[in-house]
Structure formats: structure tokens, C-alpha cells
Amino acid sequence: MHAGLCFDGFYSIQEMIELAQLADDIGMDSIWMSDHICFRDSIASAMAFLARTPRIKVNPAPLSPYSRHPMVTAMALVTMEEFAPGRVAATAGTANPTALREIGIEAERMLRTMREYMTLLRRLLAGETVEFEGEVFTLRGAQMGLTPRTEIPIYMTAVRPGMLRLAGEVADGALLSAGCTPAYIRRCVDEVEAGAARGGKPAKGEVAGFIAASVSDDPREAMDATKTFLAYIFRNKHHAENIRLGGGSVDQDKLADAIGRRAWDEAKDLISDEVVHAHSVTGTPDQCRRRLDEFVRGGLDLPLLMPLGTQEQRRRVVEIARED
């Protein structure tokens, strides 16, 4: 199966490295490391994965213009590529607005900010001396002291139509959030294609998508693991249409309150079994393989399995790629 592995950063770096090595051994395409604020850092984790695997590509995602200046991002990416040439990609994205707000950052003028960020990353990685006076960023003759020896593909995270179209226009690919239903994925792909056409590109680029996944011979055990993760991401209002297309109902205000207090059990109880089935790959190994096919048919070029639950459950998620 052409598939990648992604991590949410909620469990230890040692556990993630173990799974990264398993993914490398069985021939998975890539590892994508989420940058959830207040949890494990994507750049530091990505370097650890590169150091402990011989082949697999690594992509920190998303690198946010609100928390990482484009020069700081470019410096990190060039360092990674110098260490492991040809194995590095990156994903730019606004990051979670709710989490940003918790640390005093307002994600404003998102489309303009992302357009400028992508422009500056491209120019800095190309080794240009950058003079830039934008609405958000200003660079006054900045130039990298080194440039990558191999090209670093840059994706963009997107969920809403405007950002999806921008990703199609300016990025090498789009990355869809975990929790998207197959129906919502199809709608997202259409928007990315529209953006590519607007930018005069011959193709939309690769559409990758995080897929929350939990495998167990006990379906209830798998269900509980997925509920906690969906509670964390569904507190964000930009998932409202996605939830509607999944046919379920979620009280996002109550979720936001519970997650803000780190009341995980309370938050988990706000996610129904029906919502889990619609928005994830959860259940026994056979159930998960069948469900994963539905996400691919929704339009994903690269499904990215996000293992949830215990470490043993997570290993079984990775093994889905081997068995297919």
C-alpha cells in the first residue's frame, strides 16, 4: 500500500521512534510529524526520525507562520536536508487557532499570511537575497548561509475552501486534517484542483490526509482510543461542515471547554460511536482495512495513518500497511 505514517505528538519520542523504524522496515512512504502546541515539537522529532531510520522520508507538519518566522523555518529545513539529503519535505499551515489563542497568539489574515509565508520559504530555500515588504512579513536583504542540495517539497495544511484553493495554487501538495470524512475529502480535492487551475498549474499536486486509526481485536477498546483524539480536534469550529457531512452531531462548545480544562474523559464522552465510524479507521484489522479503502476512494493520493491507543495498538495500525 502507498501509505505514510503520522504522529500526533501525544506519546513519547521513544515510542514514536519505534513505530518510525517499523514503518521504514515495511516500506511505508513517509513519516509526518504533527506540531500540536504544548506537545512534542515537530522539528526536533523529525530529526530524531531521520537519525534512527535509513530510508523513509520525514515531513514536519504544520510549520506555522504564527509561531515560526519563515527564516527560522528555512534554517530548520536546510539543516534537516543537510543531515539526510533527499529525505526531507515540509508542510506549512496556520496551526490550530484554538491552541494558538491559548498562548496569546491570534491567527489573523490567514490567507494573506500563508501566501506570504509560502513565497518567502521558496525564495529563502532557493538562496535568494530577499527584499520583501508584505502585509505580514518584512525581510530586508535576508539570505540563507546555505541552501539545500536536493529539493524540499512544501505542502500546505488546509480544511476550508479558501485555504484549499491556495494550497492547490502555491504548494506542492495539500495535507488534510485528521477526522475528515471520505465525503469531505472529495469536496477538499475539488477545491485543491480549482486552486491549481487558478494558478495555471498542470496538476493539483499530491493530496495527503491524516487518518485517525485504532486497531484492536476488541472494537470497544479501539473505539475509546479514537474518541479521545477526535474530541481534541473537533473542538475547532472549522470542522463544523466536516462533522455535518459525516452525519453526526458534536457539541463543539462543550468540547472546547472540556479540552481547555484537560478533562479528557468528559471530552471523550461527547464523541459518539457514530462519529467515530464516520471520521476514522477504527475497529478490528479487517474492519480497518475495508474502511481505509473508503478514504482512498474519497480522493486521497497518500493516506497517512495516525496510530492511536496503546503502543501495541499503534503497532497494529502500522502493520495494516504491510498486510495490504
Task: Explain what you see.
There is one protein chain. By secondary structure, this protein is α/β, with parallel strands linked by helices. It has helices spanning 13-26, 42-52, 70-83, 97-102, 110-125, 161-170, 182-198, 219-233, 240-245, 252-260, 264-268, 273-279, 285-297, 311-323; strands at residues 4-7, 30-34, 57-61, 90-92, 130-133, 138-142, 154-158, 173-176, 206-215, 281-283, 302-307.
Radius of gyration: 19 Å
End-to-end separation? 6 Å
Class by SSE composition: alpha/beta
Number of strands: 11
Structure, briefly:
By secondary structure, this protein is α/β, with parallel strands linked by helices.
Characteristics:
single chain; 324 residues; alpha/beta; two-stranded antiparallel sheet; 14 helices; globular
Itemize the secondary structure elements and their pairings.
Blueprint (H helix, E strand, L loop, with lengths): L3 E4 L5 H14 L3 E5 L7 H11 L4 E5 L8 H14 L6 E3 L4 H6 L7 H16 L4 E4 L4 E5 L11 E5 L2 H10 L2 E4 L5 H17 L7 E10 L3 H15 L6 H6 L6 H9 L3 H5 L4 H7 L1 E3 L1 H13 L4 E6 L3 H13 L1
Parallel strand pairs: 1-2, 1-11, 2-3, 4-7, 7-8, 8-9, 9-10, 9-11
Antiparallel strand pairs: 5-6
Helix pairs in contact: 1-2, 1-14, 2-3, 3-5, 5-6, 6-7
